[in-house]
Amino acid sequence: MLIALDAMGGDHAPAEIVAGALLARNELGIEIALVGPREIIEAELTRHGTVPSGIEIVHASEAIAMDEHPAQAVRTKRDASINVAMGMVKRGVAGAFVSAGNTGAVMASALMTLGRIQGIERPALGTIAPFSEMGILVLDVGANADVKPNYLVQFAQMGSVYAERVMGIHNPRVALLNIGGEETKGSELIQDVYTRLSKSHLNFIGNIEGGEVHRGRADVIVTDGFTGNVAVKVTEGVSDFIFRELRTALTSKLQYKLAAMVLKPALLAMRDKMDPGSYGGVPLLGVNGVVMIAHGVSDARAVKNALRAASEGASSGMLDAIRSLARK
Amino acid sequence: MLIALDAMGGDHAPAEIVAGALLARNELGIEIALVGPREIIEAELTRHGTVPSGIEIVHASEAIAMDEHPAQAVRTKRDASINVAMGMVKRGVAGAFVSAGNTGAVMASALMTLGRIQGIERPALGTIAPFSEMGILVLDVGANADVKPNYLVQFAQMGSVYAERVMGIHNPRVALLNIGGEETKGSELIQDVYTRLSKSHLNFIGNIEGGEVHRGRADVIVTDGFTGNVAVKVTEGVSDFIFRELRTALTSKLQYKLAAMVLKPALLAMRDKMDPGSYGGVPLLGVNGVVMIAHGVSDARAVKNALRAASEGASSGMLDAIRSLARK
User: Fold this and answer.
1) Cβ-Cβ contacts under 8 Å, B238 against chain A
2) Would you tell me the crossing angle of helices A254-273 and B254-273 to the nearest 10 degrees?
């Protein structure tokens, strides 16, 4: 099963992307097509010495930058690495696509090239709640600012399939992000979704509040793309803020600096626990293909982990499971 | 100007409430009516020795617990401290009301007893973004799960008045919480609000994303009560999570414990910076009276600071300013 990898996507492309591909090939045995300008990729591969079998280059002459207008770039740069790789998934040449590049462009290209799974009203972008390691899938986190009740029910279904098939969680617990525990809490839309989820065959455990997201009560947390995006960005903002404050506090006096040196291993271990690289990639669910989006700051380890998730996604029958749900 | 204080509200009532009242009386010269069962309040006051002038007791025979159903408790317990105090504001006996009790009950009682300011479609509950000290007002954080564009415009107007009159910020910068910076981002509703705010007389600086809330770019951040509530609770959840992890990490080995002892003052100072007690209370805006809600965990200092904000709210002409905006 070949996985197409966007060699040009991400803040540390192509170096960390190519390094991640080699890690995934050597450690996990995944076959990878590095998609992007051949010369650039070859130059990068050369730095690593011998290229193992199972790593190939698929030429794409263009790249979409992180700050380009997504839909416009996808339409005008037809030979961009994202578009070329998506075409490979469409034709069945690749079983999945991984990109650490422009998220909006990946979503636009996926919709344009692969299209939605029949019966799925809107695709959803998932993420793994920070601090939860492989634990908690949150979706949607930005694909849909405006939603209808049925979208959220489908997000719950797709998220449950992903958690079971790719994250390896048996009978995943699904919760609804809300502003209170009782079923009468929240907006009219959310109350409607609550009723529908209660009647579904999912393992629905009810509402979860913003303060509980990281506590591990649920495996899949369903929300609209507006609230989900705000929640994820607030999480990053607060975490950054606290670590910045911590750094300032620990360097404000000489005796603090010395004590901080002793604590360094503990603090680094803590930081690692919150590192998005541990899960690697997050899925775009509801399109006709396995598409994994890695964080823009991905290093080689994160890329490797995203390739692992993509490979699981491609071999686990996830798409067929979603297709059969959508037909019901 | 007498401020009515709910002696029975909050996790540490009545001890910290009464202690806070005495602090506010002695340090700030605020006149306070402690509202609740007379015997309980008297017993608490006795522990502090002589009761200064300017502290009075207004008897209320009942109290509403933190976990009671708000609207129901407000309707059935007519002699609850919250209802009695709200009546004092209604009659003009008190210039403002402060409670660290059941937030939903305070909102329900305020609506029932004081009513909305004419022309204001929905009251909004504000909060001060943690880590910002007196800096950033976020509203609505839970009063309105379902909103219309005009509600948010009014939240912006009321928030701007509060920031100017009570927080002392000249020409407050107003931002809209959104999932991207451009005006074409976000839900249809939010885009509509963006257009309206752009045309308003407010100092509207545009969109702000979830990760920027704590960065101090804006003084007033406007959002619906659903998103705002999730954002605030995620902030608390992430902060708690990190501090819990930090505590675990710093006590996992003997040498870490020793180093952590050296760092204790720095870590405590950092924690203080994030303590909701520094701003004390948050306003319920849009009702016919000054109502401040303090955090359930409020200690005496937080109660004192909430009383200070209530006193500012009562003496600054905030209500008249909101009334005249609503008439436009």
Assistant:
1) 131, 214, 234-235, 238-239, 242
2) 90
Quote the CA–CA distance of B155 and B108 in Å, as a whole number: 18
- Domains annotated on chain A, with CATH: 1-120+286-328 (3.40.718.10), 127-275 (3.40.718.10)
d(CA A325, CA A84) in angstroms, rounded, equals 29
Q: Are residues A149 and A176 in contact, defined by beta-carbon separation less than 8 angstroms?
A: no
Contacts of A258 in chain B (CB under 8 A): 262
Q: Return the C-alpha torsion angle A101, A107, A113, A115, nearest 10.
A: 160
* A97-135 pLDDT tens trace: 999 999 999 999 999 999 999 999 999 999 988 766 558
- Measured between CA atoms, how close is A176 to chain B, in angstroms? 12
pTM equals: 0.91
Pairing of strands B2-6, B31-36: parallel
- The 10 Å Cβ neighbour count of residue B324 is 12
| Residue A4: strand, helix, or coil | strand
Strand ranges across the sheet with B281-285: B55-59, B31-36, B2-6, B96-99, B290-294, B281-285, B124-128, B137-139, B220-222, B173-177, B203-208
Minimal-distance CA residue of chain B relative to A229: B179
pLDDT tens per residue across span B219-238: 999 999 999 999 999 998 98
Nearest chain B Cα distance for residue A249, angstroms: 6
